[in-house]
Write a structure and sequence with these properties.
The structure is a homodimer.
Chain A (H helix, E strand, L loop, with lengths): L3 E11 L7 H4 L6 E5 L3 H4 L2 H8 L6 E3 L8 H14 L3 E6 L1 H13 L7 H5 L11 E5 L11 E6 L4 E6 L7 E4 L9 H19 L7 H23 L4 H13 L14 H13 L3 H15 L5 H12 L6 H18 L16 H10 L13 H10 L2
Parallel strand pairs in A: 1-8, 2-3, 2-4, 4-5, 5-8
Antiparallel strand pairs in A: 6-7
Chain lengths: ~375, ~375
Amino acid sequence: MLNFDFYNPTRICFGEGRIKDLDKLVPANARPLILYGGSSAERTGTLAEVKAGLGDRDALQFGGIEPNPTFETLSKAVEVVRNEGVDFLLAVGGGSVIDGTKFVAAAACYDSDPWEILTTNGAKIKSALPFGTVLTLPATGSEMNNGGVVTRQSIHAKLPFRSKLLFPQFSVLDPTKSYTLPERQVANGVVDAFVHIVEQYLTYPVNARVQDRFAEGLLQTLIEIGPDALKKPDDYDVRANLMWVASLALNGLIGAGVPQDWATHMIGHEITALYGLDHAQTLAIVLPAVLEHQREAKGKKLLQYGSRVWGINDGTEEQRISAAISKTREFFESLGVRTRLGDYQLQHDTIAPLIAQLEAHGMKKLGEHRDITPEASQQILEACL
Amino acid sequence: MLNFDFYNPTRICFGEGRIKDLDKLVPANARPLILYGGSSAERTGTLAEVKAGLGDRDALQFGGIEPNPTFETLSKAVEVVRNEGVDFLLAVGGGSVIDGTKFVAAAACYDSDPWEILTTNGAKIKSALPFGTVLTLPATGSEMNNGGVVTRQSIHAKLPFRSKLLFPQFSVLDPTKSYTLPERQVANGVVDAFVHIVEQYLTYPVNARVQDRFAEGLLQTLIEIGPDALKKPDDYDVRANLMWVASLALNGLIGAGVPQDWATHMIGHEITALYGLDHAQTLAIVLPAVLEHQREAKGKKLLQYGSRVWGINDGTEEQRISAAISKTREFFESLGVRTRLGDYQLQHDTIAPLIAQLEAHGMKKLGEHRDITPEASQQILEACL
């Protein structure tokens, strides 16, 4: 096991009806701003429920945070915060709204150009507004961690940031709030959580037995509930398990003390930034190709993954590794999330611009061995066609 | 899944050599008091290492906190805190020292008789000194939760307490600090962690798939490493996994959203208070009898436990349940921890006083169904003979 620090002070308030606790969770004298996405928060009644949960407060609202939240939109929210004396943020939505809220929390307290927050991966953040979240879309885990990703539309850059100051103070996880999600978003959420887990698990063994067992348990749960998450949108237990898995997939726990490989996310970000695919669609495309490209370096863990998660115990090692990668691809496809660039009409000529963007963003040594160079990324993307 | 709150702000600093980080972890201007147990902290050099880790500070010391820490001893530590203007506590030891430090942290700030802290299960705690821990004995999980147990020797009472104010600010987990532990303490630690997990897992199903998988993963890990934890005291990976399992076994995570059954601990506490057995020895005696007594109510989870943790898949349901309970008993015995009252020369006449103590302490409705009455406890204890 590698040395590690684990620290996660976010309070999770889990279960049906917990939005009514907001008035106790938000500091008594705070002037909150509710941040949300499109019209669905209004249409489904969640926004009204949140306002009721806040009691007599005079809460401001900022809607219109888009999927892959943009620096441009969030900068307008920062203006509202500054002009209106807002001192507490409340994100109502999925990972995009929560990531965006984290950026606003930091940018509102940032003295110079907030773009620096993204070009320095959050390293220059010295203070941030406190914030909480009401989660409606189980997927990214942003509700229980201190990181986010923001896109600058004007230059097609999608960049991550994190800071110890950006943990939500609380997150309300009410599984019933996910009942009205479109099937595509639910499927994307399952894939996103699955890939988060894999990226902290499928590297090389360091005898971190607990982390391995936890990762495997989360993957097994996603495989068990994935189909019903699509078929039975109002099955409470299915959505409750999906919501809790997605939070635990990226709250620091399974990644503590083990090597990590975020190559799939980094390559995927560039596909979204240039060609507009959903985040999870890019992951479903890139992950199988990364595993295939790294099948030797990841061999031992791929065999363990195949055996413990998929029950693959017969055949040669090569056959078992291939079967484990195939099962992964088939799982994504079974959810309706396609796994080839060609499924989105992206051909070979789309790869060179992606490599150029990876290089421009310093993503030249990806993977747990830092050996996924631009040349390797090129090979991986060619295998995604 | 049941509704739940999960909140755990303790920072874990894990790995060999982390004691040197103490100077950064303890607030710069604090006046700390180091609390520890017997002479082993001095003999092994851990105390000196801690003092060196604290840098130039003028740290006070309070040694002599015993296993099953007593109200009497801890009251002396409270006096030191008050007389010397101590404003930060640092526990160096295992669960007893950490539990005791939690009590001192609360009692030092308590205006009336601190005995009330124990008679009200911590409900009256309004403030507490901040504290950190350096863990030397993986077992109780106290290093990553907000509860403790203290014994009042004069009346043979061993009572639990907890408070949201009693999370350690940090805990340093250096597996090498456990190398010098006597075999008996290591075996006790494995049993204690195992029983903590079982008490949050073996109740009735509420479709909490993640919590079940995590609990099963922790149990599997203990079963895998248990023998080597005794045979190879300086195997870093074994001790690292043991230490992290023990913390995760009782940090709130696997118990969030599921029914719990602490009957084994409550009955065990009385055995320790009256007859002086080690805490884990009492658990190894009581747990198999509780599972047997509740085999119908716990049937579904016992079958799941048998299958997933022990690989028991053949035979009738009754046979599989019996096999799962037998495996549990055999595991404890394999570690050298005996599982019968008779192994400690405690005969039938020792039971009536235990029941009287359970009644005196209000432990009349134990178990996840609150149906373990004093009569049921009597039956359970008779089955422990």
